[in-house]
Design goal:
The protein is α+β, with helices and mostly antiparallel strands. The chain contains three helices and three strands, in the order βααββα. InterPro entries: DUF5953.
């Protein structure tokens, strides 16, 4: 279950995942992104910003939860980043 924004352990932690996500450098560090061994699929649809953040798309086309592969991508991302939504404490 996702936590309310005020219950998140740090302001860098996103409230939720979307099709298109912007993660600042601080957010990326807090959630452990990127990990080349674990994030190859996400990295194929991500780009680094000039400020060191990341823009990450979960799927090639806009997220449609009626498409099983899109739902699977969203579930994989939540599994990969349990900090998002405040489901665990951030990495140190």
């Amino acid at each position: 279950m996702l936590s309310m924004p005020e219950k998140l352990p740090a302001p860098e932690i996103p409230n939720f995942l979307a099709w298109l996500n912007y993660w600042s450098a601080a957010t990326a560090q807090a959630i452990g992104f990127p990990d080349p061994a674990r994030d190859a699929d996400l990295l194929s649809r991500a780009r680094r910003t000039a400020s060191g953040g990341w823009v990450v798309r979960l799927t090639d086309s806009p997220l449609d939860l009626d498409q099983p592969d899109h739902l699977a991508a969203l579930l994989r991302a939540y599994e990969r980043f349990p900090e998002i939504g405040g489901r665990t404490t951030p990495r140190e």
